[in-house]
Backbone:
């Protein structure tokens, strides 16, 4: 898989893309991540990539020209399954979408910044828009890093135990049940006996019931959407 991330502030992505699961997947050759500085694609001698909005809107807007130049260049080299824009008014990014995108070969993620991007970018260049929540950030770099992490960890070989991702919250529409490890008794706080029983079928039944209970308590909307 190849992921191209276009940003006005590449420095914001250097740390989250260089550690943990993403680094392991990169080192294994499972994913090839390229960060493109939007300022490298402007023809302006001052490397300017933003301007004031027409009308009476406040804030600066990323210009269409440098964005079109970098996307057109990338598309000339390979086909992309999706060209994604991170936007507060986009579709909510979910585990289902992470699963779908993990099957892609090539994707582009354009990070919004300032007041956003020229609407013509969204109208003519973008194929998918995602939001990570009902709030506004200064830029789309952190959402891009979060989506990249969610996608990359699903690639075969990225996790030490590939079955681990199958039991994650949201994979089956439910939240994950609580998990425990040694010691089995700490300050009188005990691990449920069923988890120590060694009876796999009963443990799996208990985990499902706990998962269902947890979801009902914390995210009943997930059950309503089924």
Residues:
């Amino acid at each position: 898989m190849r992921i191209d991330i276009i940003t006005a502030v590449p420095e914001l992505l250097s740390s989250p893309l260089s550690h943990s699961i993403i680094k392991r997947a990169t080192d294994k050759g499972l994913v090839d991540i390229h960060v493109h500085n939007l300022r490298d694609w402007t023809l302006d001698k001052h490397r300017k990539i933003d301007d004031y909005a027409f009308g009476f809107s406040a804030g600066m807007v990323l210009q269409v020209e440098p964005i079109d130049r970098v996307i057109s260049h990338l598309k000339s080299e390979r086909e992309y399954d999706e060209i994604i824009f991170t936007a507060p008014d986009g579709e909510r990014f979910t585990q289902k979408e992470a699963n779908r995108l993990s099957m892609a070969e090539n994707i582009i993620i354009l990070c919004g910044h300032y007041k956003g991007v020229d609407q013509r970018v969204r109208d003519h260049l973008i194929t998918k828009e995602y939001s990570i929540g009902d709030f506004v950030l200064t830029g789309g770099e952190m959402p891009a890093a979060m989506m990249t992490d969610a996608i990359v960890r699903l690639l075969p070989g990225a996790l030490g135990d590939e079955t681990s991702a199958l039991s994650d919250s949201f994979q089956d529409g439910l939240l994950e049940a609580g998990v425990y490890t040694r010691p089995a008794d700490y300050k009188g706080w005990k691990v449920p006996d069923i988890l120590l029983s060694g009876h796999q079928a009963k443990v799996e039944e208990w985990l499902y019931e706990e998962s269902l209970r947890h979801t009902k308590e914390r995210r009943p909307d997930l059950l309503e959407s089924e």
